[in-house]
DNA sequence: ATGACTGCAAACTGTTTGCATTAGG
DNA sequence: CCTAATGCAAACAGTTTGCAGTCAT
């Protein structure tokens, strides 16, 4: 029932300390943190690293559960995510059953997802369709900017009942 | 901070008992209730009537607060909305700060909204832009149908900081 | 008749907050 | 140093659930 998707979570070294600095997205995230006037702390870097490993939106609880033993407190993840969101590092991509699923903002073309209402499983839409939606959304953003809205963002999510084959 | 928008709520007779049957949307809603195998009860009709009066998505609490004195219990609104949603009478249009805002599904062209992150005020996008978004969303739905998804739905919401003038 | 619906109270769950402590710049 | 960030425990808010009584069909 809770949102799931094959994550790279349990892939390799979790308590890693070396490959952390190599991920280009992590480095970018780090600099964005600084430019947003936020402090670069150990818990935050761990959260961001875990976030980078995700292949699709994750819930805060899921993210925290996937972190090493006691990488940081659940509350810290909540506060960190709030800060990241304010700083534009992350965005709430899906809201499913009262829980938000986050994703890193990579400046890369956004991909929208479908969430299965029976299994909670998440799947991405094709790049083409996502692209078209992006274009339409861009027009909307433009209209809103024209009306004086600042920091315009949007969230688009599809839901449906996935075919049995896809459910597992 | 809570979502607001000029509603037709306090317009005229609230405890009205006569104009209730005249609204075409209400009649439609009533028949949809029946065809969905749901019972037509007094509380539900009051909820649907209130819903019809809304000009934009409303939260359950707001809807309940706007009902006559004790038209029905808050819990009943929650359960009624859940039933309406299952029956396709209503849909969750926006999710703002942990609260869902609902809207009647009229089969009419859907209009998307922007919610101001500072005032919580809701405003509709132009019909043109909404239309384009609709078209793009339709393609996505098609893609999903092709993949075997059933009962595909979507939610699209914009957010931003409205210009001071619009804030009040 | 009879099962769906309602009301009331209590439970839940995701999220937030206060405060003392720790640590980043 | 000085302030932002963390951890812990407790508070919150929206939503859900159990159960007994009621009403639509």
Structure report:
Two copies of one chain form a homodimer. By secondary structure, chain A is an alpha+beta fold. Chain A has two domains: 1-108, Winged helix-like DNA-binding domain superfamily/Winged helix DNA-binding domain (Arc Repressor Mutant, subunit A); 109-168, Dna Ligase, domain 1. Chain A has six helices and six strands. In chain A, the strands form two sheets. Chain A has a three-stranded antiparallel sheet with strand order 1-3-2. In chain A, helix 1 packs across helix 2 and helix 3 (60-66) crosses helix 4 (74-86). Mean pLDDT of chain A is 86; it is low at 5-20. Chain A binds chain B through residues 95, 98, 112, 114, 116-117, 125-126, 129, 132-133, 135-137, 139-141, 143-144, 147-163, 165-166, and chain B through 95, 98, 112, 114, 116-117, 123, 125-126, 129, 132-133, 135-137, 139-141, 143-144, 147-163, 165-166. The first copy, chain A, binds a DNA duplex (25 and 25 nucleotides) through residues 38-44, 59-61, 72-76, 78-80, 82-83, 98-100.
List the helices and strands and how they pair.
The structure is a homodimer of 168-residue chains.
Chain A: H1 24-35, H2 42-53, E1 58-59, H3 60-66, H4 74-86, E2 90-96, E3 99-104, E4 113-116, E5 122-124, H5 127-146, E6 150-161, H6 164-167
Parallel strand pairs in A: 4-6
Antiparallel strand pairs in A: 1-3, 2-3, 4-5
The structure holds a DNA duplex (25 and 25 nucleotides).
